[in-house]
Structure formats: C-alpha cells, structure tokens
Write a structure and sequence with these properties.
160 residues, alpha+beta, Nuclear Transport Factor 2, Chain: A, two-stranded antiparallel ribbon, SnoaL-like domain-containing protein, SnoaL-like, NTF2-like_dom_sf
C-alpha cells in the first residue's frame, strides 16, 4: 500500500498539463471525497473533480505544480507549492471570459490533503487567486467597488 505522501504526489503528477488524467486523479479520492477551491468558494465532488482539473488545464494547458515543501503529519499532507502555466485559453468569469493573454502565471499556493485508509477524503487548495488574476492582467476594479460602497452607505444612512 502506498503511503499518504505517495498518494498525494501521484495526485499532483496526474494533474500536470502534460499528463492530465482526471479519472485517475478522481480514483485517488474516497467515494464521497471533496476537492475544495477555497479562495473561489467552490467544492467539487465525484465526477466534478476531473472537470475541475480539465477546467484549469483548458485555461493553462501547460499547467505545472512546483512542489516546494511536502510535510506528512499523520493522515494530513501539507504542501507549499507554486502553480505555473501560460494563459492560452479563455478564463471564465461571472461577467464573461477573459481572452488568452499568453501571460505566464506563478501562483503561490498551500494545499492540505486529508486521507483515510490510503484515499483522499478532503483536498483543500488555498491558491493566491488575486495573484493569478493580476498575472493575467485582471486587476481589481477599485473605482467600481468604491462607488458601490458609497451607494450602499447612502442607502444605510437613509435608514437611520
């Protein structure tokens, strides 16, 4: 039987752009296992798990994860890494797609993997989504945020 660290290292291998085996990745999870993209408040279960990998690879087909530190703490594997790739596909947003820029990304990330009996029960990915967006040229629109806050504040002051 593989160690928990070996299972996690295999998960990273299967999610590389030059390998991309979503079904193999999914097979490493328990039946009810979850993949949580924490910064984007998204949870993937079952057949959604390979779709999450395919979605990222469609935007960054050469996606690579550079593992910096891997620590096994019982049934928990903590990993510090960098998600790297080239923005060659449309990046979906609630307001439409950001066209490919050709920009490289190098996103600091921390992953926590919780395993039970050699299978992944929960995978929590904490990627610096703000860094990724800035690297593809999608900087925050602070002007709109300030205007929205002013409108909300005006509405609140009329209630008091």
């Amino acid at each position: 039987m593989r160690s928990d660290e070996e299972v996690v290292r295999e998960a990273y291998r299967l999610s590389e752009g030059n390998v991309l085996d979503g079904h193999g990745f999914r097979a490493l999870f328990t039946e009810n296992g979850t993949f949580n993209d924490v910064p984007n408040a998204q949870t993937f279960r079952g057949d959604q798990i390979p779709q999450a990998l395919a979605g990222l690879a469609s935007v960054f087909p050469d996606v690579h994860r550079e593992l910096l530190e891997v620590h096994a703490l019982g049934d928990v594997i903590a990993v510090e890494l960098r998600i790297q790739g080239t923005h060659l596909g449309a990046f979906p947003t609630p307001n439409g797609e950001i066209p490919p820029t050709g920009n490289r990304i190098d996103v600091p990330t921390a992953d926590l993997w919780y395993l039970r009996d050699g299978k992944i029960e929960t995978f929590n990915c904490y990627n610096a989504a703000n860094v990724l967006l800035a690297q593809i040229g999608a900087n925050p629109d602070f002007t709109s945020a300030i205007e929205a806050a002013k409108t909300a504040t005006t509405g609140l002051s009329s209630l008091t």
